[in-house]
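Hi P.,

Sorry for the delay on this. The queue was packed all week, but I finally got your sequence through. Input first:
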Amino acid sequence: MRTVGSVVAVVLVVAALVAPAAFTDLTPAAFARIPLEGLVAVAVLLVLRGGARRIAAVAFGVLLGLLTVLRLFDLGFSAVLDRPFDPLTDAGLVKGGVDFVRSSSGGAAAVGAVVGAVVLGLLVVAGVTAAVLRTAHLVTSRPAPSRRVVAVLTVAWTVLAGLGAQTAGLPVASRDAATLAAAHVGQIGAAVADRREFEAAAARDEFRTTPPADLLTALRGKDVVLTYVESYGRSALTDPSVAARLDGAGLPARSAWLTSPTFGGGSWLAHSTLESGVRIDDQTRFDDLDATGRLTLAAAFRRAGWDTAAVQPGTTSGFPDADFYGYDQVLDAQLLGYEGPAFSFATMPDQYTLATFQQRLRAPGHAPLMAGITLVSSHAPWTPLPTLLPWDRVGDGSVYATMSGPSLPPQAILTTDPAVVRADYLASIRYSLATLISYLQNYGDDDLVMVFLGDHQPAPVATGNDPNRDVPVTVVAKDPAVLDRIAGWGWDPGLRPGAQAPVWGMDAFRDRFLTAFGPAGSQPPSR
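Then the structure:
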């Protein structure tokens, strides 16, 4: 039993040192590597004596345990957001993850997830520390063979590093633990530099002082609707059925690509980027945005005389940033009056959201309206889905009572067959797009301008081999004068952008849109 315990301890320590930080690298072969940090630690322990040796072993164990917790966060973030975890800026995303579990699986599951994560973190630190102490005892109680093993492995590490030998795409001569620790420490300096860069970018606002009479003159009298389709990314358009649905719509439109500041989640970062005209790619920038005084798209419409409204079916606890964005009123999940069942994360089907928007805000005789709508039926975990209904049957939503069923638990997205997850994702995108197209076909007129776009790509498990951050963006308008205003953009005709359609940063849209529909025409302002 002592031998088994020692072997388990050594294996655990080595695994903690060489485990990859990217989810896609997490294979058995990734653990068959030689950790430089482990060789250095054993050498130090062999030199030290008595209490100093034990203190060093405990310190190394605690540090390695904390680093392992960070590595677990990195694995989770890479699996969902395709990037590592940043302790300084990602606290808001962790909260968003808890809200996602609560919305998808209930409050008890969310509390259980938080408690489980805290307990797991403590167990990881304690377990790794205990393994280090057991390993330290093993090597120091047999100093002669331990020195020989360290010497042989050090030579092997040096030779393999020089040859650039790899296993599973990772170097056999590993120094991942030190690299990971340095990267997370370096995030502190990067955060300071990023803060300065953001403040400088936010201060450049050509439209902050534009007179109301010069804002959006080419859209006077029209309803303008900005619609976000959750997780609608470039990867969705590689599916022939999605492409065919867009191509068969027969709506006058122009389409292109925008590069989202986020991937797999953090929708609010994309929304704030598009509407403020400055890149918001982490929670710190989002939290600081309010103080910049940026003119958002909604605020520009309100300043120019439009009524403005935010329709937020995914918001269940208020929308505190509504005034900053420039929305006169907010219809959240409570105020939308839905009487049907939730569909996993989606509090209500997209068709109900659009039907209620039409009834309440676009009734005959309404004043010109600018609305921001967030559709949530295509939000992970992408099952179950409602069925598209005749619009006059939607009612208060109780008609959906027989359509809801068991949802896929949030954690199952990472453990279910990727082909099944992608099929569910594509089905949700087809539903959301079919609903949006049907709305435009039924309620679109010469006075409606619809801008719809994705907020980000879905999680990597659903994107397949398409890790880029591009999302489709489309402007739909029956009035040809509206599309003539953006002719200089070079966007593709129709609802589906081609592979070679223009690609803009999402933060470029605000300036180009305000310029195209202002007195100056379709050219963006100079910087």
